[in-house]
Amino acid sequence: MSLSQLRQSVLEANLATVRHGLVLATFGNASGIDRESGRVVIKPSGVAYEAMTADHMVVTDIDGRPLDNRYKPSSDLDTHTTLYRAFTEIGAVIHTHSTYATIMAQSLMPIAPLGTTHADYFRGEIPVTRHLTPEEIEGGYVAATGEVIVETFKGRDPLEVPAVLVAGHGPFVWGRTTDEAVLNALILEEVAKMAWHSHALKPGLKPIPDSLLDYHYRRKHGSDATYGQ
Amino acid sequence: MSLSQLRQSVLEANLATVRHGLVLATFGNASGIDRESGRVVIKPSGVAYEAMTADHMVVTDIDGRPLDNRYKPSSDLDTHTTLYRAFTEIGAVIHTHSTYATIMAQSLMPIAPLGTTHADYFRGEIPVTRHLTPEEIEGGYVAATGEVIVETFKGRDPLEVPAVLVAGHGPFVWGRTTDEAVLNALILEEVAKMAWHSHALKPGLKPIPDSLLDYHYRRKHGSDATYGQ
Amino acid sequence: MSLSQLRQSVLEANLATVRHGLVLATFGNASGIDRESGRVVIKPSGVAYEAMTADHMVVTDIDGRPLDNRYKPSSDLDTHTTLYRAFTEIGAVIHTHSTYATIMAQSLMPIAPLGTTHADYFRGEIPVTRHLTPEEIEGGYVAATGEVIVETFKGRDPLEVPAVLVAGHGPFVWGRTTDEAVLNALILEEVAKMAWHSHALKPGLKPIPDSLLDYHYRRKHGSDATYGQ
Amino acid sequence: MSLSQLRQSVLEANLATVRHGLVLATFGNASGIDRESGRVVIKPSGVAYEAMTADHMVVTDIDGRPLDNRYKPSSDLDTHTTLYRAFTEIGAVIHTHSTYATIMAQSLMPIAPLGTTHADYFRGEIPVTRHLTPEEIEGGYVAATGEVIVETFKGRDPLEVPAVLVAGHGPFVWGRTTDEAVLNALILEEVAKMAWHSHALKPGLKPIPDSLLDYHYRRKHGSDATYGQ
């Protein structure tokens, strides 16, 4: 992918999160990576969504070192690059403050797979991280946020469950492409909304059977996928 | 009804579900049947709602065999045709992922008749199916979904209660015509929303008296109907 | 007020309920009365909101006898006229299916005065009627609905609490004028929404003190009113 | 700041609260103060939002004495001026009836810091006032509302927690500028919505750790601020 294509995709991903109502005020940021060149493109800091163009997107290397200096990158950059280094198959990361996903994150409630909409996109529970320690917070909060996500995914496949709830904070979502990450962010919010309502109505509600979870997930993903409805 | 009229009606039913906010992303599908010719018309798979025309609608026979091959039918086709074969008086089927109906489906909570809006459209409880077995899921999931709906309606009149919640999945709704099915899908969502809120506020809330249920249902349906407000 | 003015006001009240999102589909109706001539003007039955003009409004006497025969009156006419006969100071009646007021009606939960928004418009609890008996339902349901409202207001001043929740059905709201009734219907829905959320969060929550209720109510009503914010 | 600039800012703050959906009907008012001249500018009473211009804004001194007499000031003026006299660093006050903040106010539930969105804007719990006594209500309700807010902030820094819930009534919010106060009012409503949902799902939920609260607050405020995302 050319750098100008990546800039455009990342711009569109940032604007899509606003259009879908997933960000409050200016809280949210999307990035993408070109794995061949190792270049990361991320939303700038301090530029209003209405005025944002592809040209405002900030380019860094995979360690977050700026490759140009016209705009300041999003203050969450180090979380994004930590994820790109650890999850080598992902191509885009989005952080939103979408209401129900954030409610679940601050309620420290993982999102259990309660229905097939969940299963179509997330193969199992969407986990909550532990809280960071005071030392982690003071010693590099943004990178530590990425690290606690990576820790939470030990033993999980980040492409099978492409989202996490950071305790007391909100969701991070990813995907192979910016389009996929945007769709995952949108579905996450709906799935979080439905999970909240199901748990509030029926405390102790069980997840759907594994057979149904696997069937739906495989219907959309992998070699047997029969995509579309 | 001519085939081109049916294509147009099915297109409009699909677009109406989007306009009423009953589908998330591309999840949802509407179909119609012409009982004289036995032809079923259903939403295509993989065509964006914005680009969809009557010409994209897919025609099959009542067993789901394609009568033309230009577009792929919705992947839920076999559920629709199973319902058309079993419920011989219905003329249209709609599957949505409307939020509250899906919440009730994944909470395994039937929608009891708690008010007259319910009674105007549904003569009694809207049931939840049982979960499918692993064997049913692997041996033809989409048709099995139709069969478990039919099983759930043993002893019920599908025209008196023109909707069902598929466990862990979401609602299927039907009607004599596509317009009726769209209206039933819209009312179902409102009724599900109100039921969720009533049960969350008052666990154990009783349905309305049978006399009120029957009076309201008969006001809108059958030979004594005094339609309109 | 001239008849043509009243037709126009009643048309606008009907359209305002739709614009404010207080009616679902075509469920809802507003009427007005000219006390001097005794003429009642009400929404017609079976005319779509989009096509509705002042000319479609139906004129009857205070007992619901049609004074012209071009359109059929709303099927809820007898509830409206029963209220006009019993509550001699009211000039307009509105029936909506607004979501939270209907939820409270089907949950059989009166709306306690929990805040000053309530107190500004309703001097005390908004009551729920009892359920109608099977005999009342079969013997003239629509008029009986009006009568059970009147029964519920024995000992209450209908101008101080200009709304009621009909058990298992939904709200009726009134006012001295159609404008006042529309505003009361809008406030009722917000007050019902807030009451639902307060009760769900804090079962057993107490109403605000009488001194605060009275102060706010008097600020907006009566000889000491200092209207506006 | 010139008086005409202040009028314009206060107008915009009033219109912004409507645009953000924070006021119901005409309930709500914003004001600003020029600390140099001591002039307060506030929304007029009885002027529709659609017709409101900078010229309608009412100018008073810090004790609420009108400096011109063309329009009547908002009936909540004395609450605003009481806050300006007590909280000497604030430059703007806004009163809204935003839904969830009002629900928390009438539920007598302070908003605990449950997440980082809260921490970014409010350094700790957003408190609820006590109820006013009957004597306070009758002896000057509007000023007493201001005084009970001041009483509630004894030992708190009003710039660190720029909002309060008045028991049984609703929120008052402030800031150094009208823009800041509008943003605080918008964030308050989102934070209240999330807190309601978290408490309803998980009664007894604990606030986030102090280290996380302080880190996020300092990220946006004070000498170490790294603003933007």
From TrEMBL, chains A, B, C, D:
<protein>
    <recommendedName>
        <fullName>L-ribulose-5-phosphate 4-epimerase</fullName>
        <ecNumber>5.1.3.4</ecNumber>
    </recommendedName>
</protein>
<dbReference type="Pfam" id="PF00596">
    <property type="entry name" value="Aldolase_II"/>
</dbReference>
<dbReference type="InterPro" id="IPR050197">
    <property type="entry name" value="Aldolase_class_II_sugar_metab"/>
</dbReference>
<comment type="similarity">
    <text>Belongs to the aldolase class II family. AraD/FucA subfamily.</text>
</comment>
<dbReference type="InterPro" id="IPR001303">
    <property type="entry name" value="Aldolase_II/adducin_N"/>
</dbReference>
<dbReference type="GO" id="GO:0008742">
    <property type="term" value="F:L-ribulose-phosphate 4-epimerase activity"/>
</dbReference>
<feature type="domain" description="Class II aldolase/adducin N-terminal">
    <location>
        <begin position="8"/>
        <end position="196"/>
    </location>
</feature>
<keyword id="KW-0479">Metal-binding</keyword>
<keyword id="KW-0413">Isomerase</keyword>
<dbReference type="InterPro" id="IPR036409">
    <property type="entry name" value="Aldolase_II/adducin_N_sf"/>
</dbReference>
<keyword id="KW-0862">Zinc</keyword>
